[in-house]
Design goal:
This protein has 183 residues and is of the alpha+beta class. It has a single domain, classed as Glutaredoxin, CATH 3.40.30.10. It has an eight-stranded mixed beta sheet. The N and C termini lie far apart (84 Å).
Amino acid sequence: MRRKRSPFAIPVMLGVTALLALLIYGVAQKQGGDEFDKAVASGKREPAPVRTVRKLGSDDTTSLAEYRGKVVLLNFWASWCGPCKDESPAMERAYQRYKSRGFVVLGAGVDDLTKDAQAFVKRYGLTYPIVKYGSANATKDFGTRYMPESFVIDREGRVVALRRGQVDDKWLDDNIAPVVAEK
């Protein structure tokens, strides 16, 4: 006896296949790559993406465009991230050391609840600006894969240096001082 096939079987299978293909394509397109890593390694400066984001604990927004003319250390972090906790005092020291010379740390809390991010900021005494950033946007914009990741951006809005992982005082001084000294 021959089994009768549902008239919906083929359209359903085609639909599932199409959705899977779209998902794979979408993930491949949305994830940033290693463009900045390659550019920095070869001495080139690529423009940093400009995205409007919310300031932590506020309805106000900001973007990297508002920091043109300053050297920016964009630091992606999360309150649950151990290395983020370890590096935050060094970030604050760098901010205090260089802020009078046109430097700012812009902390980008990634996918954190506001109360968790605010508790982190308070616990570590962070005085630099903090924004909320979605992980999908961080990946799309900067190719982030894990926390923490830091990007030094020059006064013209171009990525000069980056660190995919925890930074320390030496890395910060080695990568901020020369850019702050540029005119």
